[in-house]
Amino acid sequence: MRHLSDIMTTQVRHPSAIFRGIVPYIGGRCPLCQALCLAGSFCSACSEDILAASDRHQHRCHRCKLALKGLDYCEACYLSKPHYDDLSIAFDYVQPMKSLLLRYKNSGQLGLAKPFAKLLQARLQKQGIKIPPATLCIPLPSSNQSLKKRGYNPASEIAKELARLNAWRIDHRALHRDQQRCYTEQKALDSVGRRLNVRDLYYCSTRLDTPLVVLIDDIMTSGATLDSAAQALKAAGVKRVHAMVLARASY
């Protein structure tokens, strides 16, 4: 096997050839198409396609980013304005990304956290969204039942990677979930039931007198859990909440 230095010396006039030679040492493959690429990333072609697919929707609710048909707002946000101030999504919860995200959540494929975070980072850059370093970043807490089942919190793993990319301060203890409360799975409820189900589900045990918090979750459906968490952060003294999720599902 040739050494990396040999590859660099013999292929210096061909950058693409250098990259192909380096990749085996890096061990990178795109999680979606399996093409060679930098480790912990989607290949440039897949990344562009994923971001472009979400951009094709001409109408989205400007508050919750729900894809709409001919409207500029959704009924839920019209009736009740969310407590978060801004929302960023990486992609819509549709195939093939839906299957990839389910593998991340339910099959213990934690290696996907880094490429997912980079994809969300690419979305922020594409939209010109700049959040200062040292901003407080908080993942949405999981239930004890989910933690026991998976062994990890998917939102926390994404938050760790995003915080590293942006030099944010991450706090896993600022926001709490009421673990003693009787809770019905959100997927079994309609949009109204979801909001009632998570009312006062989250709380902060200390004051958070900070101008901005980045709130991270993996999948957003009705937005009820994000809204409940944002309300708890506002009650603790946070001035603005910028919610960020990987996938926006319809309901």
Q: What are the salient characteristics of this protein?
A:
alpha/beta; two-stranded antiparallel sheet; disordered N terminus; 251 residues; 10 helices; 15% strand; five-stranded parallel sheet
Helical residue percent? 25-40%
The helix/strand class is alpha/beta
Q: What is the first-to-last residue Cα distance?
A: 53 Å
Low-confidence parts lasting 5 or more residues at pLDDT below 50?
1-11
Spatial strand sequence of the major β-sheet = 1-7-6-2-3
Q: Major sheet: size, sense and barrel closure?
A: 5 strands, parallel
Number of DSSP helical runs: 10
Strand-residue proportion: 5-15%
Total E-strand runs: 7
Cα-based radius of gyration, to the nearest Å: 20 Å
Described by the principal axes of the CA atoms, the overall outline is globular
Query: Order of helices and strands, N to C?
Result: HHHHEHHEHHEEHEEHE
Could you report the average pLDDT, rounded to the nearest whole number?
86
Structure description:
The protein is of the alpha/beta class. It is built from 10 helices and 7 strands. The chain has helices at residues 4-10, 15-26, 44-55, 75-79, 97-106, 113-126, 144-150, 154-166, 191-197, 224-235, and strands spanning 86-92, 136-139, 169-170, 175-177, 202-204, 212-220, 240-248. The strands form 2 sheets. The protein has a 5-stranded parallel beta sheet with strand order 1-7-6-2-3, sandwiched between helices. It has a two-stranded antiparallel sheet with strand order 4-5. α6 (113-126) crosses α8 (154-166). The N and C termini lie far apart (53 Å). Mean pLDDT is 86; it is low at 1-11.
